[in-house]
Write the structure tokens for this entry.
Amino acid sequence: MDFNEDEFNDEEVNENIDEVNEESTETAENSEEFTETAEDADLILFNTCAVREHAEDRVFGNVGALKALKRRHPSVLIALCGCMMEQEHVAEKIYKSFPFVGLVFGTHALHRFPELVYNSLTLSKRIIERGTDDNLVHEGMPIQRDGDVKTWLPIMYGCDNFCSYCIVPHVRGRERSRKFDSVINEAKEIINSGYKDITLLGQNVNSYGKGLPEKVSFADLISEIDKISGDYWLRFMTSHPKDCTKELIDIIADSKHIVSHLHLPVQSGSNKILSKMNRKYTKEQYLEIVNYAKQKIPNLSLTSDIIVGFPGETYEDFKETLELIKEVEYTSLFTFIFSSRKGTPAALMDDPVPYEEKSKWFSEMLKVQEEIAAKRCASMVGETHRVLIESESGKDGELSGRTSGNIIVELNANSNIIGTFQNVKITQARNWILKGELE
Ligand code: SAH
Ligand code: SF4
């Protein structure tokens, strides 16, 4: 099981689908392995995320659906973890509404997972463990990585930014960086094991190093990783625009392994809304860094997060976001309708625009973005790009890979090239997916 804390930003539509992690501690053959079906599991662990309400609702639905299974298999341990559990009202609701859930623990108790499972099994009592934020980074936890081409590397935990809509600082605690050497050693281990695409993870990677006894910055960290020899790509997210400096852009431009992709969440194109969101930058400052990056990094691919329908946002404000999207010409966007999170300042703000209206704005934005993405992809036809071949998940049995800018390319080729970089000639563009052939 991969315990990366900041997994929620890694999906195409960022739906925070907190998949059921089914783990078997002991199967009928007495082996320790994952199982594909809940029926065969001895332990079912849900990893949850509190960022948006929709994801939380799904957790309640998915856990509720296991009631009958628990009746059929009374020995199965059903457990929930993740930052949703760090909210007292949620942990209590789960504990009260689902008596068949045996173990509930928050992100701050993650390092105690083996002990908590052991106690659940041996003491035969329900356990709830949350809110013991020691603000430490627990190194040395065992890691099981998914796949062998791409992987994550967390460099920091928590967040100090307190954007007014966001629950993350409330449930994941203060920002804390992993030790420089621990990150470098893990990066070496990953590269030496043959991974080709590494994403450094943190809520605001640009402030890496703050609070560490050694004086190190994110720029120092990526420069040092970049020196590790090997054939690999280095990515990172998330960069907060307020801390994204020209120095960082220069390092990306001059590096050997850092991709030509920058995920720079803008959230809104209206200065009024940005200020209410407590984002601490203006549209103009954002555009300045974007334009500098475009000029310095050839073929730069920019992606972003956008929230539609923040409390007090008018259609005029929303139109400013549309204008900004058109000006930047993002490769893709992670888009969300504002979700009110209990305990955040935005949850107390006046929010007069009905959800149906926000949904209309949302659809309008998707249409604008689709056109931009389609135009960008169409402009790549005929070009040759270096592509990391990732899997056989392309349509009609094709292989699927990604460009340095994180654009999907599908091609017909032998599966023995999975995990390698190939020069691919782009032959067709289908909206945001490219088709190509080996050169
Ligand atoms: N630390 C990153 C991302 C954190 S959460 C950053 O600052 O950019 C990922 C995305 O979820 C955010 O960028 C934001 O667009 C979205 N999000 C967070 N809270 C939300 C809320 N209450 N309603 C809707 N979207 C939200
Ligand atoms: Fe949330 Fe803002 Fe921190 Fe990102 S930077 S995690 S949006 S508070």
Confidence is low (pLDDT under 50) at residues 1-30. The longest helix spans residues 355-379. The chain has three domains: 5-129, 150-379, 384-438.
